[in-house]
Design a protein that fits this description.
nucleotide-binding, ABC transporter ATP-binding protein, Rossmann fold, alpha/beta, ATP-binding, binds adenosine-5'-triphosphate, 2 domains, 4-stranded antiparallel sheet, ABC_AA/LPS_Transport, AAA+_ATPase
Amino acid sequence: MAEALRLNRAGAAHALVLEGVSRTFGALVALDKVDLTVGAGERRGILGANGAGKTTLFNAITGDFPSTAGRIRFFGEDVTKLAPFERIRRGMRRTYQNSMLFRGLSVLDNLYLACRGVSAGRFSFIRPRQDDAALESARDLAHAVHLDGVAESLVSDLSHGQQRQLEIGMALSGAPRLILFDEPAAGLSPAERRDLVQILSALPRHISFVIIEHDLDVALRVVDRVTVMHNGAVFKHGTPAEIQDDPDVQRIYLGGKHG
Ligand SMILES: Nc1ncnc2c1ncn2[C@@H]1O[C@H](COP(=O)(O)OP(=O)(O)OP(=O)(O)O)[C@@H](O)[C@H]1O
């Protein structure tokens, strides 16, 4: 009991602790002994040129492509060897660079299914009643991601930006504690980017998030701290202002954005 309490307290301080996390693909070292600590409630940006290892880092954290060395703790618990669904069950969520939505269903249906825990294999065709708690949660999520006006529209009829907003809504279902956003601003118009900044800034403060984002106007406005990656390793951590003004970072990243 005392141990559980101690772990709980330790867990409350950090959403995520990575120690020496590596991932190889054959001879390629895609992630090289990454140490990273994200505090509970913290918002962290991950910057780096193409191929720096950002998405591989997310895959290691979620278990989609498990790490080949090192240790990952999620709110104090060692999740290094857990399957992705076990990490989801503990409150870890992610969005992908490519859409993972049911395109033939409405916005509200997608959110409803997410609230009912489809990802946990509890799919059900039961038609929702108006007072269904999951339907109410789905409506709240549609509101949180600025999609009230198109709640009944089919996903296939949404703009690209609205689909990305819906993905964020899906990630918000079922009490997330940490969300990993993989380039949420990719392909968005300037107006949609402003909407995205508002949505991310308005997320409840107890939800930690880590965001991979090439658009610095988005990334640096919504995060507390930034980690810059280079060649699969952590190059530097800092505040948004420190990172923006850092000559080394400018050399490897800001100067040649995708080089
Ligand atoms: N499944 C895989 N099999 C083989 N190599 C992979 C795999 N996933 C990633 N890599 C390699 O790992 C390295 C890091 O790729 P990663 O996608 O993590 O970079 P990134 O920083 O997310 O880049 P981008 O900004 O282009 O998304 C690259 O050299 C990539 O080719």
